[in-house]
What does this fold into?
Amino acid sequence: MSGSLKLLERGLAVIAVGAVLAMMLLVSLDVIARYLFKAPLTFQYSLTEDYLMVIMVALALPWAERRGAFIRLTPFHRLMSPGVRRGLYALNNLIIALMLLAMTWYAGERVWVDWLEQRVIFGVIDWPVWLSHVWVPIGTLVLSLRLFTNACLYLLGKAEVPSPPSLDEMGEGEEALR
Amino acid sequence: MIIMIGVGLLIVLLLMEMPIAFAMMVAATVGLWLVGGELMVHSYLADAFHNVTASYTMLTIPMFVLMAQYMAQSGMARDIIACSDTWLRRFNGGLGMACVFASAFMAAIIGSSTASCATMSSAAFPSMRESGYDRRISVGIIAIAGTLAIMIPPSIVLIIYGILTQQSVGKLLIAGLVPGLLTAAGYILTIWGLSKRRPDLVPRPTAFNMREAMGALRPVWPAMLLMVVTIGGLYSGLATPTEIGAVGSLAALVIVLLMRRIDKRRFASAMTETLGTTVMIITIIIGAMMFGYFLTLTQATQSLIAMINDANLSPWAVLLTLVVIYLVLGMLMDQMAILVLTVPVTFALITQLGFDGIWYGIVITKTVEIGLVTPPLGLNVFITSGITRVPVGECFRGVAPFVLVDLLILGLLLAFPEISLFLPGLMK
Amino acid sequence: RDMTLADSFPLDHYLSKEGTVYWMNRVTELTGGDLAFQHYPAEQIAKASEIMRRVQDGVVDVGYVGIGYVSDRMPLNGATMLPGVVRDSTRASQAYWSELKDPDSVYRKEFEKNGLVPVFAVLLPPYQVVLNKPAIDSTSDFKGLNLRSSGSLDLAVQALGASPVSMAAPDIYLALQRGTLDGTLLPVTSITPYRVDEVTSSVSTNGAFGSFAITVAMNAERYEALDDARKHAIRQAGDETVRHLSEYEAEAVSQLLTQFKDQGIQVYAFSDPTLKTIEQRLDGVREQWARRMEKRGLDGQQALQAMEHALEQTGR
Ligand code: NA
Ligand code: NA
It folds into this structure.
């Protein structure tokens, strides 16, 4: 379960990286074409705003969790025993997962209707609405699966809670930046 | 009552070590349910995520982080810091001052403090640590200097203020210049004072060596070229402040590829760092937006302002009360949410009392800057912490002395409106 | 409990003062204080494009629906915003409002399909060419201009031979100042709210490049739950607001044009031959729009004709 989830998370993150690079290239191209040839890429704005931005954030969501991108305050971390910590983090994960499932459901419902009605935004071309929204429920669903899995692992004692960087571990974090 | 439950729940969740972004989303969800039941939860959960992410202005975040990452991964950033260090090392805290200069410079390109702060965190922190700077003072300098981006033009905050209040955006942007430079000077003085009092926090000053200093200038040219491209691109009208980050990233990538300063592995880590940082920042903004909507729907902010309106205070008492409220709100809420929520109302109140609208915009921007670095909700501090991996609490402590200076400068701006109004007064 | 109304306008904006706030006050007065409102201005509870969702979901009772933002759910109402449709915004607003009150109108049916009841509506004064350079005096001058636009205005800009540039609203000011843009299409009344007048050199006065439909709508279930007296008050307040706001708008346009002249901005009218060529090119935009609606199984032609007919009724 955890292994195949990992693979899925990584696959989605690769698509998200693709979106970042695509935005860098498309925006630059648009700027240059507008300045030099007075011929902007009229589709770039909508493509970036309604599709690539959403793909970038939503699809990287589950991967970002594993990477520790969601920062937290840890004032009492060191006062807790490992068992208490696991229990607390399992509870946190379950609460967030439930909220994310609700998000998935409500957002998914909207995507479904947008698709059924074949709604489009009017522009230089017709932009399908569902294709802009569909990434959010995908990202929140996979992230909630990840959080459920982690909660189970914590409760079964099969995984330890990630610890905040301590004074002597600091070098490692800085290393990652180089 | 409901607002107390919402805020209380947020604090409990934060202390339970729930990630900040999700703590805000969960507290907002519960709060919305208390305000309006399932229908409100349904309405906001269905599209809050999409509404925040599907935003062209939000593009500045990944693009400026990406540019900074290419600079950091290729060693370009380290070259700049090393160069500034050789030039300024005879001063106590010279590199820290260089970092403030660099941020002020960045501020002339970037209009968003989140983007500026993320850029400097990636670019400057490793080198500061390498040169022997204390962890806490390093993150403090980076987090606080990042706030310069919204005072020194261009500034997203001032533009939005202008649109909300129908004040001249041109005058507002010009008005921010002197207060922005004054703030930068204040930070530099603070660094100087801190290193005098606590010499252990910074490396010992060493003698200036002309030959070494000239030599250190050589590896800096690619970074200078990049600066020319971005600043030139912005001021010549090639690209807008939103777009220039993308152009800058592409230019940085081309430069480091041509110089063969980046390999597959470093390219990959530039991309993953960018993705991680972007997701961290945008999810916090989603949480803050949701929590802001909850606060608005409880009508708490509106009743507070109505109360002041009805209290019949003297003009200066009203102004000072508002400033205090902004400072307190700045601790709890997202800065954009605060602006949109309150400025339309407080602006009307303030201008009726005879205060200048442009000056009030600068005062508000100053409180926004302070709010970005005060606990418990300080976006710049979160970003610095997330990127440098220095715990959030340490960062808040590192930034504390600078907050005091900021309050002092806020006092100066309030006491002497001419600081803000001198330059715009020269415009027709 | 009070009713709630959400819009995206700053409190100082005329669409707030003379529009939503005016309407709320009239409803409260007409019901003798029976219906009072809690007002959420300036995107306080949702972005402009999402307010319609909040009304549909019942988060608020009444809300601003900018037709340009919701072309996915109200495509046919977009007909009112096409070039050549709005020339005199007071009359056009009356015509549109009479359509929105008519149970058989395609325009009203689209609101009903979305669970909404329109309570008042106006069309903004026709979009004009706003440039950071001197006036244009022939159609060939459009060639090579970067003009900011969005939605169906993109088609108009293309038809004129200029380049449509999409840009976030906060960027427009600096883009005009630094020459990233050569200009933009805007209604005269929208120039000062974005402070674009500070970076403008010329404004046309007699173009009909398009418009924007400002509508305010109520959640249909909430509306049906009201008694007849209250419904009547809402209808009457709607009629009054449409008249007041559209007349205010026309007055504001002439005042603003004088103000722009005083500021040293070139305020000019296209000559008759130029105007004629412009109009010919813009005619194609309406046809193109109707064809694209047809491809989606929507009767765009009927929507255009309905508006045409309603305009004749007001005595255009
Ligand atoms: Na700036
Ligand atoms: Na804060």
